Structure formats: structure tokens, C-alpha cells
């Protein structure tokens, strides 16, 4: 049996990051990926003959800048733009507001609908800029250790520094942050703006991947996390990031095996992780195993049930990750305009009432008939993804329950598709006749293809109780109660999204 310094399970962007960091420190690392391609959710794939996507997801602006720098990703070919890509917010009456990092352009766009909104958008941006110092400090470091029974001087210093950062915001901003963080998105944004589709479009990222509507308490936190983190947009999308991370991992000596599904993590007689066994039967030895699979998959599938402590089993089972996202990819035989304009990224929502109504059926296991959409037309940046003059329309469909009552039958998927196309037709009249191919992924398909437990896009909900102690208090610092087993995927701090951060921080913890 071959022995390694570390084995990483899963070749998504976090597994690749963890492996690359360990490899860079001279460790002998084996990375095992179940699928025939690397990248996990971020892998680009052909979905209809001649039409490709650049990965399931759209937004790469959360990749942490310090990781890009320290892994020298740009030297290995990663191209980034130091801002979030422009996005259009669409109203059902044909309205369109374009948000970009150019404040003057954005306010001019908002001004067409409301002067007061244009003015208030500047103070909204100024607020998120200021609080991003505190929020990014939380994102870019392991969660503070608040175990009061074992409080060391070093931990106290970390906590004191966090307190100083908060104080450094100044009284007015600090009080505003403390006031708005527990609010629901609708109350928070209603205090600031009056244009319905502007408010709905701004709120949308705060609801992605959450089991919440705009009137759910604490939903503002998710929006702040998203608004404050976004910085670097990767040219070529998630697929480009994965290619560079794989290259860096290989350069750092990591051995990568694809089509290598891990069946079990092997524990020795003392209950310590000591290797893995593949479904195909092959075994590999290591005292360090990093799993970038979901926490539920790691503990409930990859560990033999009789090896799992009752308490650990109980709390892992209780973590929440109820999938609410579907995906529809469309192959379209023409250029696509949205509300009359050529835009690559767009969000719908229209109003808080409509977004809340879209969430209602989720609670009862029904498919909403008016989902809100996050649209990316990647062929605008890269026409080579489709035949000349054609388009790929990649749509994240929100408020689609994993546990739909009748199960995700072909009929249920057809309803999902019909509802998405009906919505899209509002913003792009006539598109239905131009669709020449499609792919529909229900949350159950996301679970089957990408091993996402309950189809949850972030390996577990981002909610206030599942943030700083992610996934559960005894596994918060990437270590787990099973000696030698670490978590290094989106189920760990700082959570889901294309950040590379859980993989990075887990590798640092392993090296420590
Ligand atoms: C539809 C969708 C849309 C999203 N949109 C966005 C977005 O716009 N912006 C954003 O920032 N984030 C988005 N996300 C979230 C983001 O994509 C994820 O949080 C992130 O990609 C997860 O990366 P990861 O490396 O932690 O895990 P994954 O990418 O899930 O990688 C885990 C890997 O482990 C492999 N694996 C599983 N089981 C085994 C096994 N037994 N043996 C070996 N390998 C195994 C899997 O095949 C997979 O490759 C989206 C996610 C989805 C699903």
C-alpha cells in the first residue's frame, strides 16, 4: 500500500487549493476525485452538442486575493479583473439598472428610476466598503476560538484584535452594523431604497443557497458577507480557476487521480484516520486525510457507522443544508438580449412580494411557478462556447426545493423548465422559439452528479448559527474529533462560494 503525507478527498476548487498548499511545503500529497474531471461544481462541461458552460456557477469574485498571491496563481496563467463584473437588475416592466464598479455609471443608471435611490446607493456602497474591513477579517482567518474553558493568551489577543477592528469602524458605522445585521433583507433595503426591482435585485445574492425569503430574520448578514467579500473576478469563469489550480497542484508535486471515488476513510484500532479505500478496492495510507466532501457525506457515508461517536453523528445529522437551487442551461440559436440590452450577467426578482411568494412553496415541497433567476450569458465574453452567432444561457434558478413532494420526476423537471422559460420570456420576448437544446438540473440532480448532500450549493446553509461554528462546534477549526481527519471544503469556515479559503485554511491547520 502506498503511503502519503496527506490524502485529499475531492478535486473541487477547495480540495485542489488544500493539496497545492501542502504540496508547496514539500509534502507528498495524493488527491482523489470521484469524477472523470476536476473542479467539482466549478468544472466546465458540454451540456448540448457544441454548447459548453464554464461551470455550474457564475460568480467568481469571492476568490481571496491573498490566496491568488501566495499560490502565485497569476504567474501560472490566472487572469483576474480587480472588481466584480457588471450586473443588470431586470424589472418585469422592461426596467434595467446596471450595477458596475464605476459609481457614476451606476448612479446614472439608477437615476432614470429614482434620484433618491441614486443618492442612497452611494451611502449603501460606502457602508459596505467600510464594514468590509471587519467582515473580510472574519472571512480571511480561521474563526476565532471562543472556548472559554481553554482560553489562551493567544486566543484572547485574536479576540481583542477583532474587537479593535469593530471599534475602528467608528461609532456611527459600528452601531449601524450592529443594527442591520440581524434584520431581514426587506426591512434593511426598504429603509434605503424605493424602486422595487432595484431592491429585489440587490437582495437576491443574500438569498442564494439559503432557506429564506426576503422577510426572513438575519437574511441581511448573508448579503453583507457577499457584498463585502467580492473583489476579484476571474476571466474565463470558474473553469479557468480550476485549470490554474490543477496546474499549480501538479507543479507542487501533488499526485492527482480522477475516477477515484473514495468508499471509506480507514481508522486504526485507536480510532485515528490512517488511510482510505476506493470503491474500486485500492487502498492508500496516510495519517492525514482532508475531506472536501460535504460534512454529512464525510461523516455519514465515508466513515463506518460503528466508528462514529454518537454525539458527532447526532450533530452532523442536525446541520441544515436544504437545497433550494436548480440549474437550467439553454442552447439558443441567436444572440440574446435582456430587456432590450446585451448584458452578460443579470438578476431578476422584481419585488420583495414576488420573491417571498417564490419562497412559500419551498416550505411545502412544491415547485414555485415564478422562480427568480440569476442569468449568465457566457458566450458574450467567450463566443467559442457555442456555434458562431449562437448563445449559451446559464441560469441559476432560486427557490427550487430539494424535497419536492412527488420527487424529482421527469414531469417535475419539465414544470421547472417551463416555469424558467416562461420567466425568461418576460425579459427576452421570443426566446422560447430560439432554444435548440437544454439541460435541467434539479437539486436532486446536483446531489447525484456533484455529491452535494440534499443538493445544497454551499455544502450547508449559510445561516447565522452555521457561520462561525461551521459545520458544528467540534469541527470548527478544520480538525475533527477523529484524529488525523480534517474538513477542507465549503462546509467549513468561511463557507460556500468560490473563495479557495476553506481549502487554504485547512491546509494551514494541517501544517501547524
Ligand atoms: C448550482 C450552483 C451555483 C452556485 N453559484 C455560485 C456562485 O455564483 N458563486 C459562488 O461563489 N458560489 C456558487 N456556488 C457555490 C460554490 O460553487 C461551491 O461552494 C464551491 O464550488 C464548492 O467547492 P468545494 O471545492 O468546496 O466543493 P465541490 O466543488 O463540491 O468539490 C467536492 C469534490 O469532491 C468530489 N467527491 C465527492 N465525493 C467523493 C468521494 N467519495 N471520493 C472522491 N471524490 C469525491 C466531488 O466530485 C467534487 O469534485 C454554486 C454552487 C452550485 C451547485
Description:
- The structure is a single chain.
- The chain is an alpha/beta fold and 512 residues long.
- The chain has two domains: 2-46 and 62-69 and 235-319 and 463-511, FAD/NAD(P)-binding domain (3-Layer(bba) Sandwich), CATH 3.50.50; 85-229 and 324-401 and 405-441.
- 37% of the residues lie in helices and 16% in strands.
- It is built from 17 helices and 20 strands.
- It has helices at 13-24, 65-70, 103-111, 115-139, 153-167, 171-180, 185-190, 196-207, 219-229, 237-251, 295-301, 310-318, 352-363, 410-427, 431-434, 443-450, 501-511; strands at residues 2-4, 6-9, 29-32, 46-48, 51-52, 80-81, 87-90, 96-99, 233-234, 255-257, 262-267, 273-278, 283-286, 289-291, 325-332, 345-347, 372-376, 391-398, 435-441, 485-487.
- The strands form five sheets. A seven-stranded mixed β-sheet has the order 8-7-16-17-18-15-19, with helices on both faces. Strands 10-3-2-14-20 form a five-stranded parallel β-sheet, covered by helices on one side.
- Strand 2 (6-9), helix 1 (13-24) and strand 3 form a beta-alpha-beta unit.
- Helix 1 (13-24) packs parallel to helix 10 (237-251) and helix 11 (295-301) packs antiparallel against helix 12.
- The model has no long low-confidence stretch (mean pLDDT 94).
- Bound molecules: flavin-adenine dinucleotide.
- Flavin-adenine dinucleotide binds at residues 9-15, 32-35, 40-42, 56-59, 62, 261-262, 292-293, 297, 325, 327, 396, 446, 450-451, 457-458, 489-490, 496-498.
Amino acid at each position: 500500500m502506498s503511503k502519503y503525507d496527506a490524502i485529499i478527498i475531492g478535486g473541487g476548487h477547495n480540495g485542489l487549493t488544500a493539496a497545492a498548499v501542502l504540496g508547496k511545503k514539500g509534502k507528498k500529497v495524493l488527491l482523489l476525485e470521484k469524477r472523470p474531471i476536476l473542479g467539482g461544481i466549478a468544472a466546465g462541461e458540454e451540456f448540448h452538442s457544441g454548447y459548453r458552460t464554464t461551470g455550474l456557477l457564475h460568480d467568481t469574485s469571492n476568490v481571496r486575493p491573498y490566496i491568488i498571491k501566495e499560490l502565485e496563481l497569476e504567474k501560472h496563467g490566472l487572469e483576474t479583473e480587480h472588481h466584480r463584473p457588471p450586473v443588470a437588475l431586470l424589472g418585469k416592466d422592461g426596467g434595467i439598472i446596471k450595477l458596475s464598479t464605476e459609481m457614476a455609471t451606476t448612479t446614472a443608471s439608477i437615476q432614470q428610476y429614482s434620484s433618491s435611490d441614486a443618492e442612497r446607493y452611494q451611502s449603501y456602497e460606502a457602508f459596505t466598503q467600510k464594514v468590509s474591513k471587519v467582515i473580510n477579517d472574519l472571512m480571511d482567518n480561521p474563526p476565532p476560538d471562543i472556548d472559554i474553558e481553554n482560553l489562551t493568551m493567544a486566543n484572547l489577543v485574536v479576540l481583542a484584535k477583532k474587537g479593535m477592528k469593530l471599534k475602528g469602524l467608528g461609532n456611527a458605522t459600528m452601531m449601524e452594523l450592529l443594527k442591520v445585521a440581524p434584520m431581514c433583507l426587506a426591512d434593511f433595503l426598504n429603509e434605503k431604497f424605493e424602486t422595487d426591482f432595484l431592491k429585489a435585485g440587490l437582495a437576491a445574492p443574500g438569498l442564494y443557497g439559503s432557506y429564506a425569503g426576503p422577510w426572513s430574520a438575519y437574511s441581511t448578514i448573508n448579503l453583507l458577507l457577499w457584498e463585502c467579500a467580492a473583489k476579484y473576478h476571474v476571466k474565463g469563469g470558474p473553469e479557468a480557476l480550476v485549470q490554474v489550480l490543477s496546474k499549480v497542484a501538479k507543479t507542487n508535486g501533488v499526485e492527482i487521480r480522477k475516477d477515484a471515488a473514495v468508499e471509506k476513510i480507514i481508522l486504526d484500532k485507536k480510532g485515528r484516520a490512517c488511510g482510505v479505500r476506493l470503491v474500486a478496492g485500492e487502498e492508500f495510507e496516510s495519517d492525514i486525510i482532508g475531506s472536501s466532501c460535504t460534512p454529512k457525506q464525510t461523516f455519514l457515508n465515508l466513515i463506518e457507522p460503528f466508528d462514529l461517536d454518537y454525539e458527532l453523528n447526532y450533530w452532523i445529522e442536525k446541520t441544515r443544508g436544504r437545497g433550494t437551487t436548480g440549474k437550467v442551461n439553454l442552447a439558443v440559436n441567436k444572440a440574446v438580449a435582456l430587456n432590450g440590452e446585451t448584458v452578460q450577467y443579470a438578476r431578476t426578482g422584481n419585488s420583495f412580494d414576488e420573491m417571498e411568494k417564490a419562497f412559500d412553496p419551498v416550505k411545502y415541497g412544491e415547485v414555485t411557478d415564478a422562480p427568480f433567476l440569476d442569468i449568465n450569458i457566457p458566450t458574450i465574453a467567450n463566443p467559442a462556447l457555442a456555434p458562431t452567432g449562437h448563445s449559451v444561457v446559464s441560469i441559476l434558478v432560486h427557490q427550487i426545493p430539494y424535497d419536492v413532494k412527488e420527487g424529482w420526476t421527469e414531469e417535475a423537471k419539465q414544470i421547472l423548465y417551463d416555469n424558467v422559460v416562461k420567466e425568461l420570456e418576460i425579459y427576452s420576448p421570443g426566446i422560447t422559439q430560439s432554444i435548440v437544446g437544454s439541460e435541467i438540473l434539479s437539486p436532486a440532480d446536483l446531489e447525484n452528479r456533484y455529491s452535494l448532500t440534499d443538493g445544497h450549493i454551499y455544502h450547508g446553509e449559510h445561516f447565522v448559527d452555521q457561520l462561525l461554528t461551521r459545520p458544528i462546534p467540534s469541527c470548527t477549526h478544520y480538525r475533527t474529533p477523529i484524529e488525523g481527519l480534517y474538513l477542507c471544503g465549503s462546509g467549513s469556515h468561511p463557507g460556500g462560494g468560490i473563495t479557495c479559503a476553506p481549502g487554504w485554511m485547512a491546509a494551514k491547520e494541517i501544517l501547524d
